[in-house]
Fold each of these.
Amino acid sequence: MATPAPASTRTARFPLGHVVATPGALDLVRTHGLDVIALVHRHAGGDWGDVSEHDAQANDRSVEGGTRVLSAYETRGGKLWIITEADRSATTVLLPSDY
């Protein structure tokens, strides 16, 4: 599998809509000084993070087919998910336990 390009050089593969975060995700980001914007850019650029190959392929199909896209990133504070809705109206940063 190819190494993803840095976030600053990747083009968004789909619209994000309104980007929001759950209180739990915001707390984790603040507590651990995480760059959540960089994670959102990775998600939009097609770097799905720590998902299985099967889920990565499903995300690739979702981008083309207009269904929900889920990325998972292991951070120093714990796992964060980023989900873009099928209609591309919203993208949510959340903890798995928030789902």
Amino acid sequence: MRIIDRYLGVTIVKATAVVLVSLLSLFTLVSFIDELTRTGQGSYDVWRAAVFVALMLPGFTYQLFPPAALLGCMVGLGGLAGSSELTAMRAAGVPIARITRVVLWVGLGMMVITVLIGEGISPWAVRKAELLRTLAISGEASLSTQKGLWLRQGQSVIRVGRVEHNGRLLNVEIVELNHNGQVYAINKAATAIHQGSNHWLLLAYERVRFTASGAKIERQAEHQWDGLLTESLLEVVTVRANSMPIWTLYEYINYLENNELASQAYVATLWNKLLTPITIAVMVLLAVPIVFGPLRSVGASARIFIGMLIGVGFYLINQVVGYMGLVFQVDPRISASLPTLVFAFIAMAMMRRLR
């Protein structure tokens, strides 16, 4: 029995890998073609476009794992059914429950890989990709260190100690240079609040200006500053919700709720990320009754087509329900989990019919 279990598992893993690589190749090609339309702007060339797409691959993998798991299981099990190997296994006394258990063990491995990619690699890679593209197009320079984010914008060097997810900047320093590259003023602010366009409000502001007679210090509780960061650079330093790890999202939701700010969109994103591994388990479970039921005798192309319809259908339903939940003020936990629960119910109902 262990040999059969291993054979089933390896077959499903291989089929899923082939499907995932195929989907990633398609998404990579489309993304690269789209990036080519931006080349020629600033220093953004074909090489940087290729690096951008490569950095986006972990994010694509995270998004494509649920449909790839469904298609992989359907293709793998369908291939065994088409060659009558599943029939031989059943005749040898292998129950559907055992095959289902193997499929779920494979799904568990996929869940672990998805969490590692989605919470470890993808957020870092997406941030690097967006920073690379925006700075190359805008012609600015940047350096990210343990002491903050450094940006070169025009005749100023900007250091941001910390970026809050609402776009608020903490521990900001603006070093102004003259045309000879010499420092003639240093501006500091404990907090910088974006007020639209390129307008900023600096709190606890201090300006040190160097003159021939010495340094002159000016302090203000508030100070208006134009051009601290352009709109494009602000998008880079501000972390998007779907690029945050789960623990960062959780901390930020607590911050919003403690300050009585709207948090529904972030809560929905958090639950979508939490449910992604469970969605993979639902997808692989759904593949079993489909292969043993209505698609037992159809060809591989039909299985792939049906699998794509189910995968795309789930994605669209998930997006529509999520947006409707935000519009009609439905609890984000309900709107985020409803599509997965519905598909899980369908999978369980189909599994009962097999017995």
Amino acid sequence: MSENQNISTNELEARLQKAENIRARDGVVWKDKFERSHKIAEACGLSDGESVKLAGRVTALRWLGKLMFGRIYDIEGEIQFSMSREEIGEDDYKFMKANVDLGDFIGITGELYHTTAGELTVKVSHYDILAKALRPLPEKFHGLTDTEARYRQRYLDIISNPEARNVLLGRFKMTQAWREFMNKNGFLEIETPVLQNVASGAAAKPFTTHHNALDTDFQLRISPELFLKQAIGAGFDRVYEVAKDFRNEGMDAMHLQEFTMVEWYAAYWDYKKNMEFTWKLIQHLLMEMRGTLQIEYQGTELDFSQYDTMDYTAKMNELFGCNILDFDDVDDLKKQLIDKKMFDADDLQELKSVPTLVDWVYKRKIRENIIKPTFLYNYPTYMVPLARHSDADDRCLDMFQLLVCGAELCKGYSELVNPIQQLHAFEDQAKNIANGDEEAFNPDNDFVRAMEHGFPPISGVGLGVDRLANIIFDQPTLRDVILFPMMK
């Protein structure tokens, strides 16, 4: 049988006939309910002699004459069961053998005991066939090995691959623990629009769609930032959102066009306070998910009990051989790189603005070499038009990013709440767009108007859920921590 689960006509007909046999006996093949006494994981913690009613998908069947052993599965556990002809009666025993296949759902009623091999088992006194699977599961010992089939038929991957199951279950438990941490620290989860008139809040190219009823084009959000900050302006003290964002950019192991971010904003915090909070959050999630701050990611040992820091502007000045804060003309800054023979003019031709150029160089010369958890800080003001200018040097931002193994996990800053500066920053972004920069921030005049009504001091952070899960659960690509990844 192929990995895409194409099945023969004979096999399908055989399973359909078994379904008819179940209908003839029970009246219904696909039952409406089953009253469980415990989940499988709960039953695994009980003592011998306890009575249980469990349900799950059949993953193993072994017939030994008058005795059989099988296994049922749910997302959190698996348990062995046994049936004997004497216990359940010859007719029911034969019917089970003739009509239940791997992949079917059954309910079992019985008593817990340990076999001579020491395995916890349910001695079944009664069974119910709850649902018939018309297609078989992947071959037991190999599962789904074709990568595309694993992602496209994720449900089969989870059933047959314990590692995939544990990673994805862990990822969602991590999000649950994340919410609990935010809630305990006084944050309120709110919702903001996915369809927006102007998708802003990050340097990214948006997806565009058309709203038929309004006969207007909308953009899928690239970040919930502007709406979350308006909520702070409305009086919500601390807010967060587990947000689906969409960016129409390239796809690789660490970038997908649809991804999940948690963004949070706190009134009266600055970026230093938020940096401390971010670190405590990550440490909390590591302890909840892995039980340690020392983990391995794709062969690299990482220690999250401590972090390094790096001055972004100082590092870039060292690389460019000049002070990048002194430049507002992209061609002049390109000349610095060409004169140093770091890049050819052809390499830089498509870079249309100073922030795009600086970020492009950073990603090729610095980012990939940052392995240990490292907070970068002190960015030029032109890099992020929504961040607060530093009081010490208004050419720099009160901003940080956390990097691990060359991946940017989060970005945070003291928010720009000065509407005059915000308007000027958006005007600069509009010029960059006019010059052909497709990833410049989209100006949002409604946001500026909201700011003119008054914002308190604010600090916010956006942290990628998929990337953090990728590292915590030691997975090679983002698709491995996404339940249903995008496929062509």
Amino acid sequence: MRKKYLLLFFVISCFILGSVCAVKPMTASASAVSEIAMELSTETVLKEGNADARLPMASTTKIMTALIIVEDCNLDEVITVPDQAVGVEGSSIYLQKGEQIDIRDLLYGLMLRSGNDSATALAIHHSGSVEKFVEVMNARAKNIGAGSTNFTNPSGLPDNDHYTTARDLCKIACYAMKNTTFKEVVSTRSHKGKFRTYANKNKMLYSYDGANGVKTGYTVKAGRCLVSSAERNGMDVVTVVLNCPDMYERSKALLDDAFENYKLLNLSENTVFSAGTVLCSLQKPYKLVVKYSGELNYKIIPIADNKKIKKGDLAARLEIYDSNGLIFNENLYSI
């Protein structure tokens, strides 16, 4: 009998120790299940990990909801809160039945306080119903190039058919951050409107130098999700982490890596190049993300007979190389 108890104790001890050893300690910059960092203006990918995995994204969904409202609605319009927007599940700005409020205060409540009730009210105002608004969300996502995304609601509440990828969500965020009104909303630390006053829950705005957005998210199914944006030295970087327990620290690590290793190179249409005896230039300005380390080399390749070229004619091609090969290739025109 004593041997049986000893054997049982040994088995239980091994199980407990094995379970403890199987749990890895969380580090300050533990990777997300899916993550990506992009330069905003060019959407150049600076770092990624499992970025095409389809995952739930919780309240980062509201980036698309806010973008549609900003693009399509009069933010000063005052509406009556619809019944469907009262008592909505999850995070809330506690809208009351029959309450009067303007679209601007609903929008700030959506992005600063993550109000699911605000999302419902805005969706119904825009499209007449949540279902119709979801159709607009999906169409707008496809137009932006987020082909692996599907929305079933405007707030991010759990649904098996509600998903995105880190890459898609970053594209949506980059597109949205180019809208000055959207950027103003998500970079605001506190908002005092005509009807409501809010403080922004996004801790990045208070803890990371240059942070200017954009949205937090959490559900049990999605885990902790964060879309961040920051600007330093004229370069904007957007990051997405999905299902990341330490979402703030990981986002900061991705942003630090981007700003430490990359810079934005502006190629002006006023820069003059020489293709043999012909002076030429680009037709428009371009932006190019390059590494701080390493050299850039360029070639000018004439593609026309110099004697027959007139002003405005295609004269040459400009090629720029880094250590990994060709990174830029555009036409030059005679000036």
